[in-house]
Amino acid sequence: MFNLVPCNRELEVAMAQFLERASDIAAFAKNQGPQCLRIDYLTEGKRLTFYTPDFFARDKEGNYYLIETKGREDRDVPLKARAALAWCKSASTKQRKWTYIYVPQGVFERLTGATVSDLDRTCNPALQNLIKEKEGPQMTIVWEDDEKAPEVKSFINPALLEALPPRYKKASEEAITLYRFLEKKEGVNLSPIFQTLFGSMDEAARGLIDRRLTPEKPSDIHDQKDWFEPYFDKVDGRTRNQYGKMTNNLKRTLIYQNGISPIGLLRSCLDFALNDKNKIGGVFEAVKKKFQVKGGRDLLALVERINDFRNTWVAHQERDLNDVKKAGQELKVWIEGLKTISETE
User: Fold this and answer.
1) In the predicted model, is pLDDT for residue 57 greater than 90?
2) No. of H helices and E strands in the chain?
3) What pTM, to 2 d.p., does this model score?
4) Within the chain, which residue ranges are assigned CATH 3.40.1350?
5) DSSP output for 177-219
6) Rounded Cα gap, residues 128 and 294, in angstroms
7) How far apart are the C-alpha atoms of 110 and 28, rounded to whole Å?
8) What is the three-class DSSP state of 30?
9) What is the pLDDT of residues 154-174, one digit of tens each?
10) Domain covering 8-131, topology
């Protein structure tokens, strides 16, 4: 057994030591620094904020883990856990599975196994109990299939919804139903309506980036290093810094499957390909080749609108979204955008 862990910092150290020794772990890292993964979620106070899990890990089978160590509880812990589970579900593919492991201090102290599989199995009951706690501000509205949401059908063309992948369709229906529920209430911030679409929108954007750029990515690991370190010292410092951030995010997206704000990264790829005159090699050459295509400017305009609205009204909530008409218009744009982005090759 492990010794008593008196505080979260020491629990993190103990977890790092555990992962270092775990026989089924190929690599792990502390999730920290300016490029760390942050998962957005809605607090009990209906405020959008971000949650940063403690560790990434990859096992020898190629599966990935988000690991949260918890020495002290706070009232948002169930909300963070549900957001992390949703992120892992969205990030998982047929080739790579993401698993969220919630590690309470007391459970970790009783752990006797020596693998991440043992850790997951031991901690999973605590996670299941956690996510069954009160839902907070999130809302689920259920209807019967044979009377399925007439408010949904009257809001948007049903044929458009039917053309969406099932998970995108479900998210869109939930968003529309919540919009219909809130539209007649005075003084309500409507930004939570778009929360149900965050995961789907990012998944669609990430999928388009992956479809276009992964075939261009070198297969050799040494060639990949050069590909993600293009030479752009001749541009000014501010632009060079922007290129550096974009390069890091592309690497996280295409190699580690954990890029930040995929819809924002898609906007950056389109903008660079269509508007940037600098000639840069490596991954930027692939971006220019694969995104400077017919229909690119229409797609850029759509993605910019979605991304700008997301950042101003939803993610950072620079202003409260109280305009019902505006929220409805943008909701239709988001749903139509989901279809466009997910279908674009």
Assistant:
1) yes
2) 14, 6
3) 0.60
4) 8-131
5) HHHHHHTTSTT---GGGGHHHHHHHHHHHHHHHHHHHGGGS-S
6) 48
7) 22
8) strand
9) 888 889 999 998 888 888 988
10) Trna Endonuclease; Chain: A, domain 1 (3.40.1350)
